[in-house]
Amino acid sequence: MASEDDTQESVVRVDNLRVAFGGARSAAVGGVDVCLAPGRALTIVGESGAGKSQLALAIARLSPPEATVTGRVWWGATDLLALPPQALRAWRGARIGMVFQDPSVALAPHLSIGRQLSEVLEAHAPKMTRAEVMEQALACLRDVQLSEPARRLAQYPHELSGGMLQRVMIAMALIGKPQLLILDEPTSALDASARQEIVSLLDRLRARGISLLCITHDVGVAAHLGDDLAVMLGGQLVETGPTAAILSDPKHPYTRALLASRITLQTPRVGVIPTLREAAPVQGGGCVFASRCDWASSVCQTPVPPHSLGQVQVRCHQPWLGKS
Amino acid sequence: MWLKYALHRLFWLLPTLVAVVTVAFFMVRVAPGGPFDQERALPTVVKANLDRAYGLDQPVAVQYARYLWALAHGDLGPSLSDRDFTVNQLLAIGLPVSLALGGLALAFTLLLGVPVGVCSALWPGRPFDRVAGKVALLAIALPTYVVAPLLALFFGVYLRWLPVGGWERGRWSDVILPVTALALPSIAAVTRLVRASVSEALRLPHVRTAHAKGLTPFTVVWRHVLPPALVPVLSALGPTAAALLTGSLVVETLFGLPGMGRFLVQGALNRDYTLVLGKVIVYAALVIVLNWLMDLLQVALDPKLRQALRR
Amino acid sequence: MSALARWPAALWILLLVCLWALLGPWLSHWAPQTLDWSHLAAPPQVGQGHWFGTDRLGRDLYVRTLTGTRVSLGIALVAGVLSVAFGTAYGVLAGFCGGRMDAWMMRLVDVVYALPYVFFVILLTVVAGRSAVMLFIAMAAIGWLTVAQIVRAETRRLCQQPFIEAARVLGLPAHTLLGRHVLPNVIAPVLVYATLLIPQLILLESFLSFLGLGIQEPAASLGNLLSQGAQEMEYAPWMLLIPSAMLVTIVLVLTALGEWCRTRWSLYGE
User: Fold this and answer.
1) Pairing state of beta strands A312-314 and A307-309?
2) Which tens digit of pLDDT belongs to each residue from A156-192?
3) Structural element, H or E, at residue A34
4) How far apart are the C-alpha atoms of A301 and A193, rounded to whole Å?
5) Helical axes B87-122 vs B273-301, angle rounded to 10°
6) Which of A195, A301, C59, C256 holds its CA 20 to 30 A away from the CA of B111?
7) Could you give the CA distance from residue A187 to residue A216 in angstroms, rounded to a whole number?
8) Predicted pLDDT of residue A1
């Protein structure tokens, strides 16, 4: 999470973002503030249903039509959520690149890779000639280190493996030269070796000055990407701060449980988080983890403002409890 | 390669056609009564001569073999009731009319059904969608033989805008009512199918990707939504065409158009074996060829199938 | 009572129409085939009791429309039952046997589907003469196809379920397996499809009668009433309009009911 002094030069600043679905009693995303500095990576981890993906989609205004989105997404002095749809297209694909999970369905099956890459440029730089567009597409595929890039242009998604498709997906997000890359579970559909390659590719992109917002349920990816980490639960960010600080000294009971549930060779016994997704009550304003927390008491039913503990911000009334 | 595949598919459709011919041939022959049984019985000698002249005195198996042999040469034999004509001549008169009618109705169906279905899917729940949905439900419940007379009654008899029947070359006004009556249920069916298919395609993950790339809404729909959405519509076109042919039977009778369907029922009742067989075979061949074309189109649209073909 | 209130209006309209068709003819003092020579092709009027007018032979259209509705509904119902019975048996057999047997049986269904079936119905009615029994068979010959496809798909799905597997492992004989485990699970989607099939069969019956291949004069069905109405429409439009309205109402109501059932039990998607 960005600290006070660099909010000035943030790429994107999310202000009290809420995503609610009609019938649901609680919001999928309940008032989230996020700030992302240029050239930094922010990883958001959390379990399924925590609202991570809805948060990512809402930033690029890609929420499903039945969702109600409120709050502000500041890009400089522009509120993306208030833009008319036509104006929004100058951001999508050009300033914000999106990478979705499971590239085998996120890419159009009936269009060639070359066609899917070139149409981004056609939309954003209509003056480019056909040759220039193809040149650029090829350069992008080389950039993401896809093997035999020239041949891939004429191929269709079903001919490529999952790892290769994810590279294509990233190339497609990069071709418009965006400042911000939003990745929604970029590695969850991939096997272990492909995952490793994609993560190091992301590392290189960040070194080039592209900001990354990476949604994942894989704490390993977060640890590798470094910079900032946000732990999301029940539509709220329960702990945010520098990745290293959170991983070495998790404050929120949920973060501790999440980290303990990782299976490593060192872990003697795998910790289990009680999974009661529907029991996350946001409407009362109490802690979203209260019903599942071993140390919960009556104070946990009252609203939890974020407490600053060193560089880390935690939404917990008693973060000192239960620490080993 | 393309041509080879097309021919290969066509080759596999041939047995279906032969099966149709065989079933139809024997069904007609099993039926009691013959073409020359009239109210007043013909003298035995005359009937025997007639039977011999048309080869009806032979065993059925021989007749079948002869028929197939002639059919392979494109000859459908003489008409048994309209004795001055061969079936080929009668079909040459009727087929263009029926094809024009069916073709116009099919074009009408696609030109109206597809856009209306797409618009309904793009604006679900809006007034346009709701009105279109109600009209489509009504049109499906209204069979051709109800719509056709009602249209004729209203536009032909009361308003006197359009002729109630008849067919003169090059007169567009003759075609409007029959084609409308014929196409209406198909338009409704296609509209509903396209709407369902497009609203499903709108939820595909790659459509969200397309939006995320900053494409215009038109490009997203045209390039990313419609191609996958229209594939099921293509495979439904075969049955749609069959329904149009069925409907043309009614429309031709009601509006007195000289198409193929007009005297089909009469011919069947008169035991005009060759005429009925000829018409049924042509209808079946039309449907089969259409299914074949749709099959080829589907392959052309799907890169996976296309590649399997290239290998 | 609250459960009844949740039933759609379509069902009530359907029940009303059925009741009317069953009891309505008794309200008139005309019989369906009585010729009233003093009122030939008379328009609808109250005085003489020809509430829907008469046809060219002076037969009362009110009574004829209602008896025709009765006939049309009855035929569709019988043909529907035949279709469902045969289609279910065929589909269960194909799905249960699987393998090559299944492939050939379903191939046959596909081939019959691809044909312009109405011409075969025409041939069929020509072969066996125009009788009510032939009409049932001809209509069921079309109706069973989709039933067979649905049942077959459902059976295949069921046969891969663990509980069927378990029953097989237990060594239950095939007929017990079918009767106790497969059929009861297949029945629900079939019944829902049947509600969509009946309006199609009503349309088919009236289509065949319209062509003169179905119910024969002097008996009435919606199809042959329409056929006569279409011939006389310039002079006696009520002969066309009244049976049309009846047919459209019934088909619309049944279609709406079928769609309601389908979404209610959310079976086979769109």
Assistant:
1) antiparallel
2) 999 999 889 999 999 999 999 999 999 998 888 788 8
3) strand A29-36
4) 44
5) 40
6) C256
7) 8
8) 42
Residue A152's pLDDT band, with cuts at 50, 70 and 90, is very high
Bridge partner residues of A228 (DSSP): A42, A242
pLDDT at A248 over 80: yes
CB A172 within 8 A of CB A116: yes
Mean pLDDT of A300-308: 82
- For chain B, helix (H) and strand (E) counts, in that order, are 13, 0
Name the residue of chain B whose CA is nearest to C236's CA.
Answer: B153
Please report where in the chains the tokens 């595929």 appear, as a residue: A141
Is the pLDDT assigned to residue B260 strictly greater than 90?
A: no
Pairing label, strands A67-75, A12-21: antiparallel
Report residue B255 as tokens.
């509006």
If one looks up domain C52-269 in CATH, what number appears? 1.10.3720.10
Is B146 in contact with C247 (Cβ distance < 8 A)? Answer: yes
Please report, as a single letter, which amino acid is at residue B64.
Y
pTM beyond 0.90: no
- A157-A158-A164-A167 Cα dihedral, nearest 10 degrees: 20
Mean pLDDT across chain A: 84
A231: phi then psi, degrees, rounded to nearest 5:
-100, 125
List of chain B residues whose C-beta atoms are within 8 Å of the C-beta of residue A94: 214
Residues from A in contact with B at Cβ < 8 Å:
60, 62, 85, 89-94, 96, 98, 100, 102, 105-112, 119-120, 123-124, 156, 158-159, 169, 172, 176
d(CA A296, CA A320): 12
Instruction: Say which residue the tokens 């060193």 belong to.
Output: A310
Distance from CA of B129 to the nearest CA of C (A): 16
Residues β-bridged to residue A237 = A232
